[in-house]
Design a protein that fits this description.
The complex is a heterodimer of chains A (123) and B (169). Helices cover 35% and strands 31% of the residues of chain A. With 123 residues, chain A is α/β, with parallel strands linked by helices. Chain B is α+β, with helices and mostly antiparallel strands and 169 residues long. Chain B has one domain (20-159): Heat Shock Protein 90 (2-Layer Sandwich), CATH 3.30.565.10. A 5-stranded antiparallel β-sheet of chain B has the order 1-2-3-5-4, with helices on one face. Classes of the chains: A alpha/beta (123), B alpha+beta (169). The A-B interface holds A 9, 15-16, 36, 38-40, 42-43, 46, 50, 69, 71-73, 75-77, 79-80, 84, 100, 104, 107-108 and B 23-24, 26-27, 48, 51-52, 55-56, 59, 62-63, 111, 118-119, 121-123, 125-126, 129-130, 132-133, 136-137.
Chain lengths: 123, 169
């Protein structure tokens, strides 16, 4: 049920992996993100959200619980995903219990813009 | 391994490197930052902050080079003296590129997709967020430049415990 997405490089060097596990909880399609979200790996997350919306799945949760690191590029993807989903009549939930990422959301004020929760709504 | 955590040195120590402005190398830069800071004796509780801050500054530098369509190396310097100092220097001589410039770019060096409006918008957001994150995260932060001859430098520093030369080697 999960899908792992591995980076590749032209010179064959090992790349940091961004793990994207897809599941469904209640009304939400959940992308559980493990590894490090930065400007190199963030496009994979952006693409995963886009794929879900293309399939008509407009209630999306991005679960950052297993995420080891997230930078501003990752935050940019969250903002973009929220915008696309709300424009299409859907919504984005961000699941975050990691104190480091919570601090980032707080620093940037995104904790007030994004729907940040401790778990995926299961109703 | 017999090396102590802090080298016994009387003068400042410098670690300097540069990298091609591509997303793939930002991770290496932030890992080096955390490692050098750890080796310098920065308290463990600050290492995540340093890793995050250096990563943000390098991300910003790569985005700025990408905006200006320049392949110059992003320069990184760590120095260990009274404090742990990190300096990240780009070579983009404009304060901020406009989103239209990004859209007009015929080639973006392989990382970005110039025809992808969402990615470009998110890059624009990210560049702005990097400074917000840095401002909130780093107490001693100075962003200087750009001018006619150089780009911007993000300078940040963190305290080192016991600034007197160590004699515990």
């Amino acid at each position: 049920m999960g899908e792992r997405v591995r980076g590749s490089s032209s010179d064959g060097a090992p790349e940091p992996e961004l793990g994207l596990n897809l599941s469904v909880v209640g009304a939400y399609s959940v992308i559980s993100v493990s590894g490090e979200i930065d400007m190199y790996t963030a496009p994979k997350l952006r693409e995963a959200v886009r794929q879900l919306t293309a399939e008509g799945r407009m209630h999306v949760a991005i679960d950052l619980t297993p995420t080891e690191f997230c930078d501003s590029t990752g935050l940019g993807v969250l903002i973009g995903a929220r915008r696309r989903l709300t424009d299409a009549g859907g919504d984005l939930v961000v699941v975050c219990t990691n104190p480091r990422i919570s601090k980032l959301l707080d620093l940037t004020g995104l904790d007030k813009v994004l729907d940040v929760r401790e778990a995926v709504p299961d109703e | 391994m017999s090396a102590s955590r802090q080298d016994q040195r009387t003068g400042p120590v410098t670690v300097r490197f540069a990298f091609t402005p591509a997303a793939a190398y930002v991770r290496a830069a932030r890992l080096v930052a955390a490692d050098v800071a750890s080796h310098a004796g920065v308290v463990t509780g600050l290492l995540d902050e340093i890793r995050q801050a250096v990563g943000e500054a390098c991300t910003r530098a790569v985005l700025r080079h990408r905006d200006c369509n320049i392949d110059d190396l992003v320069r990184v310097e760590f120095s260990i003296g009274d404090r742990f100092v990190a300096k990240i220097t780009d070579n983009a001589r404009v304060m901020r590129a406009q989103p239209e410039q990004r859209l007009a770019r015929p080639d973006s060096g392989g990382d970005a997709r110039p025809n992808d409006h969402d990615a470009i918008e998110e890059d624009t957001l990210s560049e702005e967020i990097t400074l917000i994150v840095l401002g909130g995260l780093v107490e001693d932060l100075v962003v200087s430049g750009p001018d006619d001859e150089r780009g911007t430098t993000v300078s940040m520093s963190w305290p080192l415990p016991g600034t007197a030369p160590s004699g515990d080697h």
